[in-house]
Amino acid sequence: MQVIRLEALSDNYIFLLYDRIQNIAAVVDPAEAEPVLKQLVELKAELVAIFNTHHHHDHVGGNQQLMQHFPKVTVYGGAEDQGRIPGQQVFLQDGSRVQFAGRVAEVIFVPGHTRAHIAYYFPPEIAGEPGDLFCGDTLFAGGCGRLFEGTPTQMLNSLDKLRSLPDNTHVWCAHEYTLKNLQFALTVDRDNTELQQRLDEVKAYRSRGKATVPSLLGVEKRTNPFLRWEQPQLQLITKSNDPVQTFARIRGMKDKF
Ligand code: ZN
Ligand code: FE
Q1: Which positions in this protein are listed as binding Zn(2+) 2 (predicted)?
Q2: Ligand 2 midpoint to CA 226 (Å)
């Protein structure tokens, strides 16, 4: 399975999962249909699945047009999103499994950004290779999603679940927010030298117009302040050693950054 990253809207990424052998594809969070259709024409591939992480328009906006082009496509989303995802046919829960081209992904329920948000985790095909996590607007490179429908406790629990995956996991998040996220991160985690290095790298990448997604989960664990609520530096700056309070205060500071 190959992952092809497509740009959409102003800063969204759409991920096309492509299986060369069967010449089939699946798409994660089609913000719009055009870039997906264009890529599928180039590959001469058939779209068999749409995997949605949550109901926001910049994640499901292309569903209907893709369904018109591929009437046999199956549309997946979270069970709690019933009625909010156009064309949804499969209602997934924590621990549900979905298949694509012989690969099986585990569904992880990650409420917080929305109350119904799910992530899809494909363990590595070959031991030692990176797995693939499609986490929508829950975990970002260097940051996390805003809390629109969930509480800090829910989001912390969700991020904790994602944090338990192997370090060697590709984090395929749905937006190119990395530079701004890391600029904020350094204001709360100032002595983190790996974070400083990462910010420098990302600045260089972005100045050349290069994408910073996917990142690696191990790097996130060491540099993303929204996975680091136990770190003394973050507890100091938030004046709390309570994980939820530390997390909530960092999120509140980021909202105003
Ligand atoms: Zn969203
Ligand atoms: Fe989004």
Answers
A1: 58-59, 137, 175
A2: 17
The answer on whether 117 is annotated among ligand-binding residues is no
Q: Where are the domains of the chain?
A: 2-223
What is the model's pLDDT at position 115? 98
Distance 56 CA to ligand 1 centre (A): 5
- H/E/C letters for each residue in the chain? CEEEEEEECCCEEEEEEEECCCCEEEEECCCCCHHHHHHHHHHCCEEEEEECCCCCHHHHCCHHHHHHHCCCCEEEEEHHHCCCCCCCCEEECCCCEEEECCEEEEEEECCCCCCCCEEEEECCCCCCCCEEEEEECCEECCEECCCCCCCHHHHHHHHHHHHCCCCCEEEEECECCHHHHHHHHHHHCCCCHHHHHHHHHHHHHHHCCCCCCCEEHHHHHHHCHHHCCCCHHHHHHHCCCCHHHHHHHHHHHHHCC
Q: What is the pLDDT of residues 78-99, one digit of tens each?
A: 999 999 999 999 999 999 999 9
Annotated binding residue 69: no
Task: List 85's β-bridge partners, or say none.
Answer: none
Note if 57 is an active site residue: no
Structure confidence by residue, pLDDT tens digits, 11-26: 999 999 999 999 999 9
Determine if residue 54 is labeled as part of a ligand binding site: yes
2-223, what's its fold? Metallo-beta-lactamase; Chain A (3.60.15)
Look at residue 39 in the predicted model and tell me its pLDDT. 98
pLDDT in tens, 214-249: 999 999 999 999 999 999 999 999 999 999 999 999
pTM of the model: 0.98
